[in-house]
Structures are given as C-alpha cells and as structure tokens.
C-alpha cells in the first residue's frame, strides 16, 4: 500500500475545482441587473416628477426601493446562489421588522383616534 497514489472521490474533484475557480456569472447578468436598477430608479424619480402625493407616493417609492434592494442583494451579493437556510436567516429579520412597523402604524392610528375622541375639548 505504501507509495500508492489514491485518486480522490468523484465528488471531491468537482468540489475542489469549483472552490478553486469560484463562481463565474456571465457579464450579461450584471448588465441586465444594472439596466433594471436604472429603470426602477427612473420610476422612483418620476413619482416626484408627476407630483404624486399621499399613500400612493410613499407606496410606490417604497416598492421601487425594495425591488432595487432585492436585486442588489440577490445578484451583486450572490444571495440567489446561497443555500435557502442562509437566505432565510438574512431575509427574515428585515421582514419581521417591516411587520412590526406595520403593526405599530396601525396601533398609532387607533391611539390617535382615541386621544382625539376622549381628550378633545367640547365643541
């Protein structure tokens, strides 16, 4: 047995080659994402250009912001190619924060309504 060379297992060769080379993505993917980021940014600026107001304005701005952040995280930070558990570990906390903020907004509307109802002086 001494002096014999052992060939690595089939999976070890493929895994070693991938780790040595790294992930290679076509440049076209990055150019398409940059294009979408440009389009989404243009839409975001058009919201102000057309003078939209109120909930529609803020909803559109937040929608475009979340879409741009999702593209950046998925492609430029390589989250699209990560394991699902890691994606959940990174995406779940911001989603939970958004849910809690939404609950606080609803609660603040209710609290404001009660204060106006009970603390307003007689008309």
UniProtKB/TrEMBL annotation:
Primary subcellular site in the record, as a coarse category: membrane
Keyword Membrane: yes
This protein's GO CC annotations: plasma membrane
Organism: Bradyrhizobium cajani
Record's bilayer topology term: Multi-pass membrane protein
Signal peptide annotation: none
Segments passing through the bilayer: 27-47, 59-79, 85-106
Protein name: Cytochrome C oxidase subunit IV
